[in-house]
Design goal:
This protein is of the alpha/beta class. Helices cover about 40% and strands about 15% of the residues. The chain binds nicotinamide-adenine-dinucleotide.
Length: about 270
């Protein structure tokens, strides 16, 4: 049976927890949120240079009482650093903010037009230097992954993209699975947009669970790494209680039928 500490194996053999905490917009609550998560068994923390809270994540991990090696830390290179050709400096700045000697997973935050290969080359170098345990991408659609593969020496280990019941992303997930790229869901709860959805409320009622738990269970049961954000300890705990029930195949189908391709960030228009 899976647990909160269960992992998926990445294409280079390293293990990544299937469930973690997102900290986008956690702001001044970042330290207590990360500490609450670790205390309650989380082992994956997802931040980014853009979130402005790598320092808080680093502080919280260091003071968590759990060793650095047991925590899987993801951060990401922001778009401007790619545009300015400052990939190396951006990574060094992230390491410094985190106060860490390595990052577990470093992601290209968005596919910046014309910069995909340049950024990836530098990521590959830093990976080979042992500064990063795995490299991956975020917000890459199939065509971005195809483009990357033309020149890449190392295939991305992970693609983190927007994914929730209103944006099921079946095609992209199948593509990732075929290419041995682990799919990871951002905004897995759709920031609460689906909490009143009758189909989900019904499934939740049947299992004595919340809609958030049903949605997150869908992810782990489908092999999608998921990183819901909350700064409230009660929700941090609740969100992770998804390893003690199973969705039936009918329920999975009913959830997938909710898809309406509702995207909030379009990876084909990265002008920010
Ligand atoms: P999310 O879908 O995780 O929703 C978070 C919001 O849902 C919280 O602010 C809270 O208000 C609410 N919530 C959480 N648990 C709840 C519960 N049990 N009951 C009721 N409400 C609850 O949204 P997100 O923060 O956008 O995404 C999660 C993480 O994904 C981020 O923190 C970040 O780490 C990552 N992310 C990555 C990208 C990217 O471009 N790679 C973009 C957005 C987010």
């Amino acid at each position: 049976m899976q647990t909160l500490q269960s992992t998926v194996q990445l294409n280079n053999g390293i293990e990544m927890p299937i469930f973690g905490l997102g900290v986008y917009k956690s702001e001044r609550d970042t330290v207590p949120a990360v500490q609450a998560a670790i205390k309650n068994g989380y082992r994956l923390i997802d931040t980014a240079a853009f979130y402005g809270n790598e320092k808080e994540v680093g502080d919280a991990v260091r003071n968590s009482g759990v060793s650095r090696e047991e925590i899987f830390v993801t951060t990401k290179i922001w778009n401007d650093s790619q545009r300015q050709g400052r990939q190396r400096e951006a990574f060094e700045s992230s390491l410094k903010e985190l106060g860490m000697e390595y990052v577990d997973l470093y992601l290209v935050h968005w596919p910046v037009p014309e910069k995909i290969h340049e950024t990836w080359k530098e990521m590959e170098k830093m990976y080979e230097e042992g500064l990063i345990r795995a490299i991956g991408v975020s917000n890459f659609l199939e065509h971005h992954l195809e483009e990357l593969s033309v020149k890449a020496n190392i295939a991305p280990a992970v693609d983190q993209f927007e994914c929730n019941p209103y944006l099921i992303r079946k095609g992209l997930r199948e593509y990732c699975n075929r290419q041995n790229i682990v799919p990871e869901a951002w905004s897995p709860l759709g920031r609460g947009a689906c909490f009143e959805e009758p189909v989900l409320l019904e499934i939740a009622k049947n299992h004595g669970k919340s809609v958030a738990q049903v949605v997150l269970r869908y992810d782990v049961q489908s092999g999608i790494v998921t990183i819901p954000k909350s700064v409230k300890e009660e929700r941090i705990v609740q969100n992770a209680q998804v390893f003690d029930f199973e969705l039936s195949s009918e329920e999975i189908r009913a959830i997938e039928k909710l898809n309406r391709d509702e995207m909030h960030g379009d990876p084909d228009y990265v002008d920010f």
